[in-house]
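Progress narrative, Year 2. Work on Formate dehydrogenase subunit alpha from Halocatena salina advanced from sequence curation to structure prediction during this period.
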Amino acid sequence: MSNETRETEQQGVAGFMARAKERAGERVKKGANERIVRPFEHEFSGFMGNAISEGRLFSLADAVSDYQLNDIDVTDTTCEYCAVGCRFDVLSKDGTVLGTRPNPEKAPINGISTCVKGKFSHSYVTDEDRLTQPLVKDDGEFREASWDEALNRVVDDLDGIREEYGPDALGLVASSKATNEANYVMQRFAREVIGTNNIDNCNRLCHAATVSGLSSTVGFGAASVGIEALEETDCYLITGSNTTEAHPVIATKIKQNVKDDDADLLVFDPREIQMAEYADQYSRIEPGYDNTWINGLIRHIITNDLHDEAFIDERTTGFDQVAETVEKFTPEFVEEKVGVPPEELKNAAETIATADSCVFCWTLGLAEHSHGTENIYAMANLALITGHIGTPTSGLSPFRGQNNVQGGGGDMGPIPNNFPGYQPVTDEENRKKFADAYNMDVEEMPDKEGFRITDMFLAAEQDDLKGMFIQGENPLISEPNIGHAREVLETLDFLAVQDIFLTDTAEYADVVLPATSSLESNGTYTASTRHVQLVKRAIDPIGNVKPDWKITQALAKRFGYDWEFSHASDIMEEINDLTPIYAGITHERLEDLGEEGGLQWPVWDEDHPGTPYTYADQFQTSDGLAHMHPADTVEPSETPDDDYPLVMTSGRVLYQYHTGTMTFREPGDVSYSNRSFVEIHPETAEEYGVSNGDTLDITSRHGETQAMAEITSRPSPGEIFIPMHYLDGGANNLTKEKPLDGPSRSPEYKVTDVQISVAGSDTDTPASAVPGSEEERSTAADD
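Result:
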């Protein structure tokens, strides 16, 4: 690692703090962190750790001078941002969050680490824009209403649509940011109360292809390994993951293993992300051709007898068909389509095949395609033919995006094809099991798969879906093709939204219900590594907000269903009674674990210790074998032409979180990335006459937008990158609502053909000096 890179990393958080100081109006030099914060930690027995909330960091008197240590409330909880599953203590007083502090005794995944968002970005909880009272819309204008009025309005309108058009004319959207308990209750509401399987969540827009591909190949639609593998494996293959910006704590563990233990790191990505700087080999690939290069690796391994024949014979099926399918993916073919030279393909294949252990890591760059499930098949095939699965340090590790997308997005059953625990709704025994638990006749339990969220928007366009109830999601920005999503929301007969802010989506609602934030909630989240961990209320709910599950329970009661849940722990007891992989998980057991932290499902009973890694002896399939599937799609759904000669791909930036509902209200986060931008290679910029800071008109076959140019070598010539977080200038103004991946019904966010032109600069300031520039974003915050 170069001195420049090391210095950049060391300065990342310090720079962030310095900008916080300026906003607070403090006159402190750059050394303030060392001279003030750390001595303060020692003086107060380290209680503040290194995590005083930004904005108070350089105003210590305001934060703590009036309090003795025993006057400050300390609550251990799980982070509300990405699905790494970091835990920390929240320090609060009188409803104000003073800061957070990692507590390694209760943090099995992150230990002493947190990222910038987990450390600083919690003041949104008491932001002046928080919803504190229900809203109803009259004549196009919102007004405050009582809970009784708002809930009755929701019930009347949902029931009216159901009575006139049937239950499948309604679509419900659960939240991957809400607790497991809230999501479980939401799926029960859809099936028992409304009578439909039309329930889904944002998992459809990110890792649904991962779930689809892995569940049909190895059994569980989740990571097969835990944090041990990410710390100790001998080899990593990372693709479609900007790990340092999307999952900083995991990135730190990987880089540490590469540096200290000489683990091999292979990175395949269209952009030269920061992880590429640490890689033994970085291969730049063309967006949309993942099947091609992965199949090229498989072909090389098989052709050169580097595959694990004993593992394949004993533990898999489908190898012969895969071997036949990959024959066309020669080194020459891979280089032509993907741009990876034969020597790089050979080196990567042989490094993986000969490693003692290997972890295959990816995020949405592999999944968000119109053939995303095939991409996952290919990755699983690669792990299986090399035998790198089923051990503590070898396996499949998709990094999940939202804090509870593993649990709330899938495990709890807020999806149209499965009950909780991935039990298919089309199976009569499963329907009987849940119908009996809910005191229903089995004939009343819906028996066909419902609409996925992407299909809900398409069905609404065709007038087959009349109303929606959306909990904790902002699909106006997150759905593909913002223009299409807006048209759908405008034409619904009824829309109810449950959230913590009046989001862009909620602006179109007829009723808005105010929910508690993570720091005001009790329950559990499930991390990428299948860790189920407690979420604890750190401050009292503000205003007149209610927990998500209590709102859903109140709606059910108005429909005539009396659910006797008095605490989130009661819901978990029902979950573990009906969901085999959660059978041994209770709130009491999680509280008693102490330093062991959470439990990794499957946890088959209350004496079971959990499962740090899966598939040690057999796969979770009907015959115990892994089922390989051929994956031979080559082209993405669209390719450049004279009208749209460039390719746009999309992704995250470190200082923002999904659609910005929380982070857009954090001054520190906004100071780094307050607007959208478009990364463009210097060669492409020269060809189109683009200068740093120019405002660009960007058009696709599906929409148009404007964003500020940032000239950088991160993308390839002929490609551009736009982040997905923004309404104005964001990538989803350009993406398409169809075609969708067949098995998962996920959209293709990662390949969109575009044209660009200079619209005229809004500023004379060069891009390197404006918030969100490459130089600032690439500074490390994975401390």
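The longest helix spans residues 3-24. The two ends are 16 Å apart (CA to CA).
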